[in-house]
Amino acid sequence: MHPNDPSLRSFVDVAPDSDFPIQNLPYGVIVTSDDRRPRVAVAIGDHVLDLGIMEDAGLLPKVSAKPVFRTPSINALMENGAYGIGTVRRKISELLRHDNPVLRDNGVLHKRALVPVRNVKLRRPVDVAGYTDFYSSREHATNVGTMFRGKDNALGENWLHIPIGYNGRASTVVVSGTPVIRPQGQVKGPGDPAPVFGPSRRLDIELEMAAVVGRKTELGHIMDVAEAQYSIFGFTLFNDWSARDIQQWEYVPLGPFQGKAFASTMGAWVVTNEALTPFLVEGPKQDPAPLAYLRQDKPHNYDIRLEVELKPASATRGTIISVSNFKHMYWSSAQQLAHHTSSGCAMSVGDLIGSGTISGPDKGSYGSMLELSWGGKEPIELVEGGTRTFLEDGDTVTLRGYAQGAGYRIGFGEASGQIMPAKVKSK
Amino acid sequence: MHPNDPSLRSFVDVAPDSDFPIQNLPYGVIVTSDDRRPRVAVAIGDHVLDLGIMEDAGLLPKVSAKPVFRTPSINALMENGAYGIGTVRRKISELLRHDNPVLRDNGVLHKRALVPVRNVKLRRPVDVAGYTDFYSSREHATNVGTMFRGKDNALGENWLHIPIGYNGRASTVVVSGTPVIRPQGQVKGPGDPAPVFGPSRRLDIELEMAAVVGRKTELGHIMDVAEAQYSIFGFTLFNDWSARDIQQWEYVPLGPFQGKAFASTMGAWVVTNEALTPFLVEGPKQDPAPLAYLRQDKPHNYDIRLEVELKPASATRGTIISVSNFKHMYWSSAQQLAHHTSSGCAMSVGDLIGSGTISGPDKGSYGSMLELSWGGKEPIELVEGGTRTFLEDGDTVTLRGYAQGAGYRIGFGEASGQIMPAKVKSK
Which residues in chain B have Cβ-Cβ distances shorter than 8 Å to A427? Predict the structure, then answer.
């Protein structure tokens, strides 16, 4: 049976609302207290399957002469190409099936290889080669454009023709759970006589998904959209933290830089493109029709429900401040990647392609606090009282998401980060 | 004696106008026909000293438990910090002195380790972690701003306060000598009804220097300018090829992307910051005074003469189309790097910090063809007849540069690339 088959069950207990049924099998990187060497794992229910141990036991297909699981990222797995990846996922699925005794009935191996997720530490799963962020939700671009440049210049002349994107900073992509230090920077309000340097006062989130590129290309190679779709290994939750005050003062004419360079948080689990195939849907109608190199003759959007929770340090409960969906993207990730290669730009295994903020059509579905509070003018109400326009120190923001199947969910875990105070030097 | 001492001489012949006297000792990475394993070398006159062989012979200080020279980049050397780097340069200088018999009189070693540069192939010397490009020549920013946005908006409100920069694409930084494929992309002229996709018709160069970052920092660490200066391992020539037509249509609001993603050419030799110390000079006066985090109390500009040669495929001689100087930069590389960390952005060993196009005050010193031909309106005359506004297929562009000492030059070799036709698919 195909690993996506809805009828599959595992001998590992999986709650109906778990993100990680046997149909998912997302890849992550773990360490444990008894083995500090990072290695690749898949999530199954409330457990992880340690693929380093499974590889040692000779139970996984050998896709490469070198180890691909006893490594500190999933890059080695990705480098072995779609054939190897598909083979591995099928084998893992088989090993976890309710009716397969190989792992289920091997007491020692079972105990060693299947570890409760609470007993592992999740590392950044991808050795991030490059990080590119796009700007491809029409609603988000219209909202931000209206606030930054006025209603008449909201959506630029090029926006409906190009998946607008820019290079981000790969060195500061961190895994879920990593604290985020409030950035400092130059800011200047419209009425200020001169800029000042200090902690950002408009610290924001961006609800995104990131596509993980699993294929290397050479300089000069241009992908069409079908090849781009095939070159995406999987997806993860992604929060592109943004200091709006720094960004606003710096971004003309060369784009965002320090306003976004301080941190971006990715989820600990990369859900394979294969596991998401059942959830492909048409995106918004593209009018004008894209140029030939951006045309897609199949759906490349995904129906993935997304939510953002904000929890102040003092709160006992978080507030869901946004519920959106990945399907709202005007430009698909495959179109973004095709455009990325259109100049002949070489892609690397481990490149992250941020979707850009995913805002839906109505206010409760906006993917940034800038939009949710409409530039700080309409504070967001919290469930335990109090409000937010932008983030305060101690706040924790958690992104979650899943695609709903028939009786199971393909979920992403979470991408979470707590805001730490700025490191202000006393002079 | 200090390795920079002007009186030093080597037993290796060095012509007076050579880029590579014993006072220089720039690092590169070589392979040879009899040994395809890349390793680190220094240039001396028309030869290179193979540091892999010197390391094997036990003649270099051991700065690390792992090999630092039998590696495919200079990153391992840089990771060993300023102490290790200084020790190594002193030792190499000693070994190459005219009065030191150790290498000079060891016939076998001499022959093996000192290889004519024509017998080696130079590889990209740096494993490029991230690539950031700045926009820090006031003349260049004013010229381009005038052409793209009109005279009144030429220099943005933020330009005199922030070293404006953006993230570039690290995967397409190539070493001197690598052919550059003419990029394709979306372009739309002001009068065109819709964009079209095709080969760029305004392919340009940018005369730059790139600083190579030699120290890793953690998230949240902010460098002051003095620390930034100390964190720069060295400099190399840098050509940030630019497709102006693609750039113009794509760059609002998030900055350059595919217009620059197809290739950037770095020199094969990285000249150490230490070797350049004698050539530190004051930059242009900064008014208004920079904010405290950007203040420098010492000169951080360098007096490095730079030139650009353009040679059509059919020509026997190239034309020097620009003579500029690195000293013209308004913002120093140290200020750029300090600003880069101002948000807490983590830096990596092997990050490249492009200076931005280095234009001098007069027309013969502009660092791009966009400026030299004033947007294509004033064609550049070539010495053998003919003109250029932008680059044609077959053209070779070569950057060169050196600092002039008393009786010697600290030179950079060259950063060269020939334009290949676009790879247009027939459909």
Answer: 292
In 3D space, the residue among A237, A262, A268 whose CA is nearest the CA of residue A38 turns out to be A268
At A426, the pLDDT band (50, 70, 90 cuts) reads: low
Rounded-to-integer distance, Cα B286 and Cα B297, Å? 12
**A140 part of the active site:** yes
For residue B60, the one-letter residue type is: L
Buried/exposed B207-228: b ≥16 CB within 10 Å, e otherwise: bbbbbbbbbbbebbebbbbebb
Residue type, B418: Q
DSSP bridge partners of B122: B30
Catalytic one among A140, A300, A339, A340?
A140
Nearest CA in chain B to A339: B258
Fold entry, domain A131-420 = Fumarylacetoacetate hydrolase; domain 2 (3.90.850)
Nearest chain B Cα distance for residue A364, angstroms: 26
User: Which of B254, B351, B427 is nearest residue A164 as measured by Cβ atoms?
Assistant: B254
Angle CA(A343)–CA(A344)–CA(A349) in degrees, nearest 5? Answer: 120
Distance CA A242, CA A332 (A): 22
Instruction: Pick B345's closest partner by Cβ from A256, A261, A345.
Output: A261
> In this predicted model, what pLDDT tens digit does every residue of A71-104 receive, in sequence order?
999 999 999 988 788 999 999 999 999 999 999 9
pLDDT digits (tens, 9 = 90+) for A374-394: 999 999 999 999 999 999 999
Handedness of CA B336, B342, B343, B348 (dihedral sign): positive
For the CA atoms of chain B, what is the radius of gyration? 22
Partners of A135 on chain B (C-beta within 8 Å) are 254
User: Which one, of B170, B114, B125, lies nearest residue B27 by Cα?
Assistant: B125
Q: Which residue out of B140, B328, B339, B340 is catalytically annotated?
A: B140
Question: Which class for A292: exposed (0-12), middle (13-18), buried (19 or more C-beta within 10 A)?
Answer: exposed
DSSP A153: G
CATH topology of domain A27-123: SH3 type barrels. (2.30.30)
Average pLDDT of the segment spanning A288-302? 97
Domain map of chain B by residue range? 27-123, 131-420
